[in-house]
Amino acid sequence: MAEGIQDRRRGALWVAFVLALGAVLCNAAFFVSFPGQKALEWPSLLFPAAALAALVVGMLRLFRQPSGGRTASSILAVVTALVAGLAIVGFFHARDLPASHGAPTVGQKVPDFTLPDTSGQPVSLAQLLAPAARGAAPKSVLLVFYRGYW
After folding, report:
1. In angstroms, rounded to a whole number, what is the distance separating the alpha carbons of residues 96 and 148?
2. Which pLDDT does position 107 carry in this prediction?
3. How many Å apart are CA 17 and CA 37, to the nearest integer?
4. Which residue has the higher pLDDT, 117 or 138?
5. What angle, rounded to 10 degrees, do the helices at 41-64 and 70-93 form?
6. How far is Cα 24 from Cα 76, in angstroms, rounded to an integer?
7. pLDDT tens column, 133-143
8. Which of the listed residues 5, 9, 24, 121 has the most CB atoms within 10 Å of its CB?
9. φ and ψ at 114, to 5 degrees?
């Protein structure tokens, strides 16, 4: 009987832990975009707030009763607080990307450059954009940059 009461008091701590994990996942969803996905900004703040509220409720329930099992619950509470804190810090600082002052803007013409193609032959941007035939539609070039291994 006492074990069932102890599990019920720990339930709020487990709910707090799951909510804190949900907050981290909401922040991770910011970096993974799917077609039609909207920003998960509000859940990224609501989940850790709810986790911290459930954490306080769980700790109050746990320490009001004079029974054992507080060590494992306290460890769970500390881990939950750290995860919720990580989610809050991630919400405010993960979007702090430095401004790129020298980057071209949308619609700005790219300066001409020459790079080797897959066979090693030099190809310039002007060659790729040269009209193939009179009256043909203008050509376009898609530039893809892969980050190298550092």
Report:
1. 23
2. 78
3. 26
4. 117
5. 160
6. 16
7. 676 776 788 87
8. 9
9. -130, 130
Mean pLDDT for 92-105 is 72
The amino acid occupying position 36 is G
Residue type, 141: V
89: CB partners within 8 A, 6+ apart: none
C-alpha torsion angle, residues 70, 75, 80, 81 (rounded to 10):
90
Residues 6+ apart with CB under 8 A from 58: 9, 10, 11, 12, 13, 15, 16, 73, 77
Q: SS3 for 94?
A: coil
* Least confident residue range of 52-61, 99-108, 122-131: 99-108
Amino acid at 90: G
70 contact partners, CB below 8 Å, separation of at least 6:
62, 63
124: phi then psi, degrees, rounded to nearest 5 = -100, 160
Position 1 pLDDT exceeds 50:
no
Amino acid identity, residue 115? L
The pTM score is 0.55
> 136, 142, 112: which is closest to 126 by C-alpha?
112
Ordered DSSP codes for 95-120: T-PPP-TTSPPTTPPPPP-EEE-TTS
- Between 49 and 103, residue with greater pLDDT: 49
